[in-house]
Amino acid sequence: MPGNSTRVHAIQDITRRTLRPPTPLHSLESLWASDVYTLDKMKEHLPKEVFKSLKKTIETGAPLDIKVADVVAAAMKEWAVGKGALFYAHVFYPLTNATAEKHDGFISVQGDGTVITEIGGKVLVQGEPDGSSFPNGGIRGTSHARGYTAWDVTSPAYIMETNNGASLCIPTVFVSWTGEALDKKTPLLRSIAAMNKAAKRVLTVLGNKDIAQVNSSCGAEQEYFLIDAAFAAARPDLLLTGRTLFGKPPAKAQQFDDHYFGAIPERVQMFMQDVEERMYKLGIPAKTRHNEVAPGQFEIAPFFEAANVASDHQQLTMTILKNTAKRHGLICLLHEKPFAGVNGSGKHVNWSVGNATQGNLLDPGDTPHDNIQFLVFCGAVIRMVHKYGALLRAVVATASNDHRLGANEAPPAIMSVYLGTQLEDVFKQIQKGTLTGSKVKSVMNLGVDSLPQFAKDPGDRNRTSPFAFTGNRFEFRAVGSGQSVSGPLIAMNTMLSDSLTWFAEKLEAAVAAGTPVPQAVLSVLKVIMDEHSAVVFGGNGYSAEWHKMAEERGLPNLPSCVEALPVLKDKAVEELFSKAGVLTPVELASRFDVYAEQYIHAIEVEAKLVISIAKTQVYPAAMTYLSSLTDTLAKAAAVKIEASPETATKVAGLVKSLTGTVAKLGEALAKHDFSTTEQHLVHAGKTLRPLMDETRKIVDALEAEVADEDWPLPTYTEMLFIK
Ligand code: ADP
Ligand code: MG
After folding, report:
1. What are the CB-based long-range contacts (under 8 Å, 24+) for 406-410?
2. What share of the chain is helix, strand, coil (3-state, %, to 5)?
3. Tens digit of pLDDT for each residue in 23-73?
4. Domain boundaries along the sequence of the chain
5. How many CB atoms sit inside 10 A of residue 485's CB?
6. Which atom of ligand 1 sits closest to the CA of residue 350?
7. What's the mean per-residue pLDDT of the chain?
8. In angstroms, what CA-CA distances link 412 with 387, 396, 408, 566, 645?
9. pLDDT of res. 66
10. pLDDT (0 to 100) of residue 161
11. SS3 372
């Protein structure tokens, strides 16, 4: 067996591991939402009046009547206690991509020393975690640490089961004592409200009478890697940063594309079933699973839901993936680029807007050219991506996503819109002022009578576009696999609210001046195409020609966080968010500070680890090998055998470069006198990162030379192929 003892032990552990016994299969009906306090359960447990009042709040956003809270709290507690919960937690979403929770017991000590379980309406509705250690971008000093959580009734409460018991979880927003949003949920709810208002205004000018609440929907496809926990335990880089800082690409990676959509390995399928069972219990509609492109890479996608619920469910999905992996002796990596040289992971956010009365507002139907309502919403999207493309780039900017965006596997760092042939044609006709029709769906004939004939979609798919129309929604493909979907959803909803408001103003004026609605719409759409069609692109987004063309079209190309994050400080972005009532200038500024700080921390932690692994693991291994080579060469020379010193010379040279580069990285890391956050950002991105990459090159070259039995780190081949 190859490898040094650490690796040999890991491999032995894995190959001798007995698989977890498969979970008995339950029917979907018996699992579905059994751990969720659904409307149905509320209806059953609550007095009629209380239920009606609560339902109104959930469905129409009407203010929550505090009098009903006590009754709801008591009923919810009864249900939770019946499910074995002793604690409840206000769950919130701080500006990290994590989920936070503070647990409190239902326990209430009585005067006679006995205890009962209890939760009052007030504590259900409002909590006060200190939480002053969460990043807040200067909104709160530790001396003004008060923060509140408040129940978001539009996202249902649920039971979180662990091996150690169960807790009742209540989704909440998290705000400071001064009322500023410290989380991702508050602005998401505000962005939905802003979009709803603007969309209703447009729908009204278009002549609709009955208009229900407009919401955005989100279906997020999640990619991830599974690696055996025994390997991860021997890789400090995977443990602390979620990615391999070193590692020579394996001889066979993904060139055969034999993993993509291949048969799912048994152990992985058992893991997936476990994940899905937990998701179903929590009312998360897991729908699709498959192998992804890279070896060891997989995907899970749910059926889409309303943005706010989808976002909470997406956070839960990430938690479930990670926790379930542990129970199967695996670790689930949500990092965007855990392994160099093989594909990274993204999260495709499918996004649309619609309501109960007008349906999906981004559904073109078969003849988009005469679907005025669709054209308005689609035109508004074109305008928003052109006007705020840089913002769209900024909300997916993280240290880890930098490895993926712009590489030849993921959408480029340039934001453009793919419409597909049919729609692109319709919008071009509008621009020319000659709108006559839509290209029709053709029928695909496969030449075998027994096979069904099917209608071909009017547009193909373009996997190289960051923002692609996919039939009845847009798919934002640049989102990182480890990211919360809230940031992108907040940006998209807010940008759309801005475009729709602009559109409504133009239409209202034209209609007031006597222009018929369809004509008014077409002339506004022509303005959109004249001013914003530079963002529409149907070609290969990975190509060098596109980079050149995009520059000529004036589209920003922001390759990394260093360029992308400062966009959050643009005046236009500040105005966009404050006008829509989504983020105040103070809240927005705090977000820049937090995200920049997170980027800097991420790079610095990696740099420290690069130094420590290089010094304490790689250097000793290289020296051990060098010593055995030189010993052998000396012995050979003593007996006059000619032995080639080439490898020894090469290893010695690499060790010398390693020592030099690591020393440079150490010096750069010690620098701390930055007068602005931007300066620090630039230092991390433009000095530390390149030095880390340089170190990596040397270490990977050493891995190709040093004897396998001396090499301390599990290799790519082992991690990606042994399961
Ligand atoms: P693909 O990999 O072909 O893009 P998937 O089936 O893996 O497709 O994922 C598509 C995602 O898009 C699913 O989560 C699906 O529910 C979601 N989706 C479908 N229609 C809409 C819509 N109107 N709004 C938002 N998401 C949608
Ligand atoms: Mg997709």
Report:
1. 406/559, 407/344, 408/542, 409/293, 409/343, 409/344, 410/344, 410/346, 410/477, 410/478
2. 50, 15, 35
3. 677 888 999 999 999 999 999 999 999 999 989 888 877 777 878 888 998
4. 32-183, 192-248+255-598
5. 27
6. 26
7. 90
8. 18, 12, 8, 19, 45
9. 78
10. 87
11. helix
Q: Separation of 304 CA from ligand 1 center, angstroms?
A: 6
**CATH node for 32-183:** 3.10.20.70
Question: Where would I find the H helices in 206-265?
Answer: 229-233, 236-241
Tell me the pLDDT tens digit for each residue of 514-546: 999 999 999 999 999 999 999 999 998 888 899
pTM listed for this prediction = 0.93
303 CA closest ligand 1 atom index: 16
Residue 411: name the closest of 482, 474, 464, 348 by CA. Answer: 464
User: ∠ CA 611-702-707 to the nearest 5 degrees?
Assistant: 120
- 168 CA from centroid of ligand 1 (Å): 30
Q: How far is the centre of ligand 2, averaged over its atoms, from the C-alpha of 501 (Å)? A: 29
E strand or H helix at 147, and its extent? strand 147-151
pLDDT in tens, 302-349: 999 999 999 999 999 999 999 999 999 999 999 999 999 888 999 999
Closest approach atom of ligand 1 to CA 472: 23
Q: Which ligand sits nearest to residue 285's alpha carbon?
A: 1
Measured distance CA(189)–CA(185) in Å, rounded: 6
Residue 1: the pLDDT is: 44
| CATH number, domain 192-248+255-598, options 3.40.50.300, 2.40.10.120, 3.30.590.10, 2.130.10.10 | 3.30.590.10
Give the pLDDT confidence score for residue 488 in this predicted structure. 98
